[in-house]
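Posting this for the archive.
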Amino acid sequence: MANPDTDISLPPWFQSKIGYSLTPTGRQLLEEYSGISASEVEAHIYKIRDMAWEIFPWPCVGQFWFISFGLSLHPAYPSLLARFRSSDPTSTPIKFLDLGTCLGQDLRKLAFDGVPVQSLYGSDIAPDYERIGHQLFRDGDRFTDRFIAADFFEEDAEKSGLAKTEGSWDFINIIMILHLFDWPTQIQACRRILKLLSRKPGSMVIGEQSGSTEPREYVLKPPMVAQGEHKTMYLHSDKTFIEMWQVVGKEAGRGLKIEVVYEDQDDRDMRAKEEQMGKKRFFSEAEQRFLFFTVEVV
């Protein structure tokens, strides 16, 4: 296992210990769904994290976000599960797409909570995430053909398996994705997401991202970018996030119901405790908030 205390080449978001990142929910899933013994869970996670780190050193990998099961923390998660449970089992299965799925952690939580596997798909640009996800959850024999390796910005169906699915998805999940981009690129991303989403009323984009009560362009600094490189990310408030989707919806001729809420005080208190325990964050200003959102076709 890589050690940030001795390896100075490791970035500051490489977290040496799992600690608070392994919640009771995460442990339960790995023990009951994946069949990993309680004594082996942490060693297993460290091994998988190092494998995923070799693919790309994302902060979400370095800080064990792949065992946080972020979708299950969304205020609309119970309603999402209810939609699946109330669906007609004799009709065409509901189709759920997890964009930027990483190791497919949110898909496994949905499956663990009773959603049929045939409804669940994930897409990411790195095809090796499918293999590592199977190793993390030990379900290569029962969670097969669920991964679409693609750049979701690619619109050519001859080059992208994901582009071939435009208009077919009942739900699209995007956890901690949009804030990676500047405003123009977020607009472009939202256009692509709407093209992928079904036009049926009730079809929905659901997700979470970093935001701020004071919306602004955030200039990235080393080590988040190379020395001399200029790159920005746009951190939305609830109002600017709604405005962005309104622009894209109007442009596409789509009626959208957009709802955004900030994380609650309990979540903010928990993040403060984590920071006191040594977890490094890159958007830790007083104005920073996580945004939970839904964008529903009406």
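The radius of gyration is 19 Å. The mean pLDDT is 91.
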